Amino acid sequence: MKPIPIHAFNPGPYTGEGNWTWLIRGRVTTLIDAGTGEPRHLAAVEQALDGAALSHVIVTHGHTDHASGVTALAARFPAVRFLKMPWPERDGRWPAPWEPLGDGSVVPAGDDTLTAIHTPGHAPDHLCLWHAESKTMFCGDLAQKGTTIYIPPNLQGDLLAYLASLERVIALGPVQLLPAHGPVIDDPDRVLRGYLEHRREREEQILSLLRGGESSPDAMVIRMYRGLTDTLVPMARESVLAHLLKLEHEGRARRSGDAWHIIEP
User: Fold this and answer.
1) Which of the two ends of the chain, N or C, has the fewest CB atoms closer than 10 A to its terminal CB?
2) Percent of the chain, pLDDT > 90?
3) Is the Cβ–Cβ distance between 27 and 111 less than 8 Å?
4) 58 φ, ψ to 5°?
């Protein structure tokens, strides 16, 4: 399996330099993630196909930068199939004849198969695609080299689920992660364990602020994230909220209106 990276040409404050989609050529030519319908992406997909028929598109999760391109792809490649794990509240935003994938679904891709691994946290429907023979994983937004992953509670992001997903992928022992953003990750164990440690450190920061009497997520953002641009402040607030919700679930914090308080043993 020799996947071809194809850029989606969608840079922005939430997408960085933009997405990578991955084309796997062969008997069942497969595109992983749909981009946003940018004409340059469609042209690049067509060029990489080099006359081959695109069989299906597997979408790792229903965020705009991964799923919204299905409409344009369907128009360009009318026979293509679209597969993803259902997210009923969101899938209707981009009408497509979605075919459902579940945890453990085995999907033909190229001349081989991929196994869908449900890795919620960043999104409730998030899937990674696992090629066991090469220990390669198409990891969507599970990981991105050089930065952490955004967990948005306002879009059903769940930090507890994300941490469990990291542990699950670590246990598989991948040797390479092919992400939707940033470069290929050739040291998955180090990167994923680094995420776990980073989240532990953030949690300790938040617990320390709660113990000191800080109760506002907005104030916590100011204390924890120095020099943020205005466009990134909402993301930082969501990250703090994700940690607070985890602590609430574990019975270590409680909220009263917009204020949060620690629960000590």
Assistant:
1) C
2) 90
3) yes
4) -105, 120
Residue 130 lies in a domain: yes
CA-based nearest residue to 72, from 52, 89, 107, 96:
96
Residue 198 lies in a domain: no
Strand partners, 129: 116, 138
Asked if 28 contacts 54 with a C-beta cutoff of 8 angstroms, the reply is no
AA letter at 21: T
DSSP H or E run through 28: none
We report the CATH number of the domain holding residue 82 as: 3.60.15.10
Residue pLDDT, tens place only, 197-220: 999 999 999 999 999 999 999 999
Q: Using one digit for the tens of pLDDT, what is the confidence trace for 29-50? A: 999 999 999 999 999 999 999 9
pTM score of the predicted model:
0.94
The count of other CB atoms within 10 Å of the CB of residue 57 is 26
- The answer for 87, left when phi > 0, alpha when psi is -120 to 50, beta otherwise, is beta
Q: Identify which of 98, 102, 28, 106 has the alpha carbon closest to the alpha carbon of residue 70.
A: 98
Range of the domain at 234: 203-262
Q: How confident is the model at residue 11 (pLDDT cuts 50, 70, 90)?
A: confident
- pLDDT at position 151: 96
Calculate the alpha carbon distances from 70 to 14, 66, 228, 256 in Å: 20, 9, 33, 42
Check which CATH number belongs to the domain holding 228 and give it.
1.10.10.10
| Total number of domains constituting the chain | 2
